């Protein structure tokens, strides 16, 4: 074990260089123009898994982006750990707000800056390096390891859903380890035990068959943008509650002991507001900020398109308008039921003068993982060792829909060992990852392998 830890510390600068090469590949899964880059990135991951010393590494083609699999199964009779990550990244727009080009990683102020540095290349790369450190120093691992890296996480993981269903034997394991979440604060070792689900939709409001002169026609026909805005404004009431019928019907109430644990985390609304550049926080009445973020469902408009949006003025009454609307869901809400109620409700809000179409783009279930499992306990000890502090347990507001599928199909506990910080700008310009978290992440992973193999 000591050899492994020393080896990691000695080779850390090489790991940074390798991560930089990984980050140079613009693997944006949602843009067809980057399809070749996504492929190239999968090939890069294959190469890294091979270099790490895994005995079987394979690239599986799918309907969209490849899935990369790797394994080392030389620890007979020992538990098997499945490590998941995603090598795809979010788009980079607005490009002009980046201080450095998003795919030309730089190290500055103790951070590595690039799209994907945190979400998720930097975070899952730590596990590749810890496994490699074992294999290069000891020639073996104290448990069996499998890797599954996908290229569609940021667009809903469709191919991986099918892959898991069809490859249960291949992916069979005793625990799933994922670093794709956050830490409660800088230097605070964190295990996440809950994530929100998601329901992503698009509302399209269509009026006249073409754009109209707003002087000649304005006042006599419904304006799709006006009507869309009215619909959006009716999705919340004055207390910040979502107005979709039955929306809260299945929401689990927070247990008093969990509420108490949230309180112990001493969250500061004031500091949070300052960090975000807002004067005041806002949300559902009657709940604390951590409750609003982690255990209450929400609805947000993510984008809105319609009419004339160039510089200058143009007097039209647009023929259509579209809004992207997504909901974050919590146990025990079912995205499919919410979707039905949402479609019905939105349609009921529109006047006859326009037609409204609601499309569901993707959805994922919320999760809470039981804290009492050998894997979680081993993980808590591991991160605590690496960061030199007591581990905190949190829930988070983001979503990783495939987690539920791992639990359901493989019947294995999932460990969410997050290494990112809220301030790392994931999905935003100037994404970065703290070098400290990258290094301690590799150590955490190495300690976890040791701890879990003994448990
Ligand atoms: N790493 C995030 C999920 C995340 C972010 C968890 C912050 C906890 C804290 C992941 O890559 C992500 O962005 N997921 C998407 C889900 C999706 C597109 C289906 C999300 O949450 O929007
Ligand atoms: Mn993401």
Query: Beta-strand level of the residues, as a percent range?
Result: 15-25%
Tell me the strand order in the biggest sheet. Answer: 1-2-6-3-7-17
CATH superfamily of the largest domain: Zn peptidases
Helix content range of the residues, please?
A: 25-40%
CATH class division of the largest domain:
Alpha Beta
What global shape is seen? globular
Q: What would the CATH topology of the largest domain be?
A: Aminopeptidase
Structural class: alpha+beta
What secondary-structure arrangement, pairings included, does this model have?
Blueprint lengths: L1 H22 L11 H18 L3 E5 L6 E6 L7 E7 L19 E3 L2 E3 L7 H17 L6 E7 L7 H9 L1 H4 L3 E4 L11 E6 L1 E10 L5 E2 L10 H10 L22 H9 L4 H8 L12 H6 L3 E9 L9 E2 L2 E10 L5 H15 L5 E10 L2 E2 L5 H14 L4 E5 L5 H9 L3 E3 L15 E3 H20 L1
Parallel strand pairs: 3-6, 3-7, 7-17, 8-16
Antiparallel strand pairs: 1-2, 2-6, 4-5, 5-18, 8-15, 9-13, 9-14, 10-12, 11-13
Helix pairs in contact: 1-3, 1-13, 2-3, 3-13, 4-12, 11-13
The structure holds ligand BES and manganese (II) ion.
Protein model, in words:
With 455 residues, this protein is an alpha+beta fold. The protein folds into 2 domains: 2-195 and 366-453, Aminopeptidase, CATH 3.40.630; 197-251 and 297-363, 2-Layer Sandwich (Alpha-Beta Plaits). The chain has helices at 2-23, 35-52, 121-137, 158-166, 168-171, 224-233, 256-264, 269-276, 289-294, 335-349, 374-387, 402-410, 435-454; strands at residues 56-60, 67-72, 80-86, 106-108, 111-113, 144-150, 175-178, 190-195, 197-206, 212-213, 298-306, 316-317, 320-329, 355-364, 367-368, 392-396, 414-416, 432-434. Helix 1 packs across helix 13 (435-454) and helix 11 (374-387) packs across helix 13 (435-454). The mean pLDDT is 97. The site of ligand BES has 17 residues, from strand 14.
């Amino acid at each position: 074990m000591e050899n492994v830890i020393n080896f990691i510390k000695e080779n850390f600068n090489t790991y940074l260089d390798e991560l930089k090469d990984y980050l140079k590949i613009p693997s944006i899964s949602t843009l067809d123009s980057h399809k070749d880059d996504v492929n190239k990135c999968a090939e890069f991951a294959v190469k890294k898994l091979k270099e790490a010393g895994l005995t079987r590494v394979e690239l599986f083609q799918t309907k969209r982006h490849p899935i990369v699999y790797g394994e080392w199964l030389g620890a007979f009779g020992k538990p098997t750990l499945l490590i998941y990550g995603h090598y795809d990244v979010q788009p980079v727009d607005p490009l002009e707000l980046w201080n450095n080009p998003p795919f030309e990683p730089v190290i500055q102020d103790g951070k590595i800056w690039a799209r994907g540095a945190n979400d998720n290349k930097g975070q899952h790369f730590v596990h590749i390096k810890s496994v490699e450190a074992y294999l290069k120093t000891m020639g073996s691992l104290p448990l069996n390891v499998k890797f599954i890296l996908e290229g569609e996480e940021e667009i809903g993981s469709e191919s991986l859903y099918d892959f898991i269903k069809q490859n249960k034997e291949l992916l069979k394991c005793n625990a799933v380890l994922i670093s794709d979440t956050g830490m409660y604060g800088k230097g605070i070792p964190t295990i996440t035990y809950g994530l929100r689900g998601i329901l992503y939709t698009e509302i399209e409001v269509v009026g006249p068959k073409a754009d109209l002169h707003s002087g000649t026609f304005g006042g006599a026909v419904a304006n799709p943008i006006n009507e869309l805005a009215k619909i959006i404004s009716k999705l919340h009431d004055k207390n910040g509650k979502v107005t979709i019928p039955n929306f809260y019907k299945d929401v689990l109430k927070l247990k008093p002991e969990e509420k108490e644990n949230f309180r112990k985390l001493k969250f500061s609304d004031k500091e949070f507001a300052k960090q975000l550049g807002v004067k005041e926080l806002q949300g559902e009445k009657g709940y604390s900020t951590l409750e609003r973020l982690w255990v209450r469902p929400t609805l947000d408009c993510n984008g809105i398109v319609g009419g004339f949006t160039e510089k200058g003025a143009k007097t039209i009454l647009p023929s259509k308008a579209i809004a992207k609307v997504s909901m974050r869901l919590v146990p025990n809400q079912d995205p499919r039921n919410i979707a039905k109620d949402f479609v019905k409700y939105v349609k009921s809000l529109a006047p006859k003068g326009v037609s409204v179409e609601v499309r569901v783009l993707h959805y994922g279930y919320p999760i809470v993982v039981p804290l009492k499992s050998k894997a979680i306990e081993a993980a808590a000890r591991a991160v605590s060792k690496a960061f030199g502090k007591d581990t905190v347990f949190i829930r988070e507001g983001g979503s990783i829909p495939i987690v539920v599928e791992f639990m359901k199909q493989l019947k294995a506990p999932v460990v969410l060992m997050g290494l990112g910080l809220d301030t790392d700008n994931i999905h935003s310009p100037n994404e970065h990852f703290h070098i400290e978290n990258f290094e301690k992440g590799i150590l955490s992973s190495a300690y976890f392998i040791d701890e879990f193999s003994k448990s």
